[in-house]
Specification:
Blueprint (H helix, E strand, L loop, with lengths): L1 H8 L4 H43 L13 H6 L3 H32 L5 H9 L6 H11 L8 H14 L8 E2 L5 E3 L5 E3 L8 E7 L14 H5 L7 E7 L23 E6 L2 E7 L5 E4 L8 E4 L19 H26 L3 H9 L4 H12 L1 H16 L3 H6 L5 H4 L2 H9 L6 H30 L1
Parallel strand pairs: 4-5
Antiparallel strand pairs: 1-4, 2-3, 3-9, 5-8, 6-7, 6-9
Helix pairs in contact: 2-16, 4-9, 4-12, 4-15, 5-9, 10-11, 12-16, 15-16
């Protein structure tokens, strides 16, 4: 019995240990063989380009002369690079915060929508659109011409609905026909007029096809005689279709200009105001005796409202961020919605039983419990916006490309887009890598912490 116990409890045989060691070595070799293709690809596509870029950043544009840190010094002296760095900071501060907030709000609201799946699909659909296609879509949407850009079409429509639009933006008075143009764009009679006068006010510059449909010939209105206490006149298009006619005379085929605002001014004050009829006629009644000036206010000739210059220097970066939000809001909503579905429902129900309203539940329970998910989404978006290139390059027009540039586009422009200085471009690439690494390290640590 003693001999048996000694044999069982003693050290394993040397052959068994060697066999186990060989098995472990064989397992590590097999694992290495499986990992080797991925390591080769990683080295060829990631590690080698990174090391080459770092080394290339210490050479001049031709790559033959070692310049040390001159490229890094030049990088921070270049105004275009400083603009790119500023815009990148704006992207990092604004875009991830807005996306995370929108994703959180939409994820919470979608839970209360009957067709939640269809709504999620609708919001997530832009993720299937490439950045190139999205850039082209928004380049057209932001077009300043209201006939092409849908955003300016909406803005112009709303503006004209509340503010109205000028009747004849291209109209002007003929020289020497009794009307003088003011600094504010208005036209006024060159000589004083008095009650009892009838004034023919001829304008040109309006195409017959652009006249209102209800416009009528003005000759009959011009022939009417004013009473003793009234001032009459007609505003007409001093142009006869097909030729003929006489300047300054209302011919039979010349049309009146309806809806033209007319004012009677005395001593610098507007005494009366009216609007022309369909035949262009107007009249002021009950005027006191004396001298007046008849004025056509500048609002009649103001150029039409063209909307907002979305892709101008001031708004190009916010406009591009708006396009980015359209693409990535669905991504943030789906990820946060997945985290929301794992929340303990008993905690939410207990809060409702205790009398908490939906806002208190959202602020004090939902958001704190979702903090890990929100952090992952935010950091992932930070890494993504640091590398944004396609949207900026496609949406921003050439004249404002420098105002919208970020580090990724500036790196490409300096290296290949006309700068042809790959030494400076490599330095920009190294700067971008250094800015991305902290966010990547933070994200990896978060993932490891969640796995534990």
């Amino acid at each position: 019995m003693t001999a048996t116990l000694t044999k069982v409890g003693g050290p394993p045989a040397a052959g068994t240990v060697a066999h186990k060691r060989r098995a472990r070595r064989r397992g590590r070799t097999i694992a290495l063989l499986f990992v080797l293709p991925a390591l080769l690809l990683l080295g060829a596509l990631v590690l080698y380009p990174v090391l080459f870029t770092v080394g290339r950043s210490f050479f001049d544009a031709s790559g033959t002369r070692f310049v040390g840190g001159d490229n890094y010094t030049e990088m921070f002296r270049d105004p275009a690079t400083l603009t790119a760095l500023r815009n990148t900071i704006i992207w990092v501060v604004v875009a991830p915060a807005l996306l995370t907030g929108l994703g959180l709000i939409l994820a919470v609201l979608v839970e209360k929508v009957r067709w939640a799946t269809a709504f999620k699909l609708l919001l997530f659909m832009p993720m299937a659109v490439s950045f190139l296609a999205a850039g082209i879509i928004f380049r057209l949407a932001y077009d300043e011409d209201p006939d092409k850009g849908v955003l300016n079409a909406a803005v112009v429509g709303i503006h004209d609905a509340f503010q109205g639009t000028s009747s004849y933006p291209t109209a002007r008075a003929r020289d020497g026909q009794g009307l003088t143009k003011g600094a504010d764009g208005s036209y006024r009679t060159s000589t004083s007029v008095s009650p009892g006068d009838t004034l023919p006010l001829g304008l040109v510059g309006v195409a017959p096809k652009e006249l209102p449909q209800d416009a009528r010939p003005a000759q009959a209105a011009a022939a009417r005689t004013a009473g003793a206490d009234e001032l009459r006149g007609v505003v007409y298009l001093d142009f006869t279709p097909g030729g003929g006619g006489k300047q300054g005379v209302v011919d039979p085929r010349e049309s009146g200009l309806p809806q033209m605002q007319v004012e009677a001014v005395r001593d610098g004050k507007t005494i009366a105001s009216t609007t022309t009829a369909t035949d262009g006629s107007f009249r002021f009644t009950g005027l006191d005796a004396g001298s007046y000036t008849v004025t056509l206010p500048g609002s009649n000739f103001a150029p039409p409202y063209e909307g907002i210059s979305w892709l101008g220097p001031a708004l190009v970066t916010p406009a591009i961020i708006g396009a980015y939000l359209w693409i990535w809001t669905g991504f943030a909503m789906v990820l946060i919605g997945a985290g929301l579905s794992t929340l303990p429902r008993d905690a939410l129900e207990a809060a409702r039983m205790d009398g908490a309203n939906e806002w208190q539940i959202f602020r004090r329970i939902t958001v704190p419990l979702l903090a890990p998910v929100l952090t992952v989404v935010f950091v992932t978006l930070v890494i993504n916006v640091m590398k944004v290139f396609d949207l900026v390059y496609i949406i921003a027009p050439g004249p404002v490309q420098e105002d919208a540039t970020v580090l990724a586009t500036q790196m490409w422009l300096v290296s290949f887009g006309g700068g042809n200085d790959q030494g400076l471009g490599s330095a920009l690439g190294v700067l971008l890598l250094l800015l991305v690494i902290p966010a990547m390290v933070f994200n990896v640590r978060r993932f490891r912490g969640s796995q534990r």
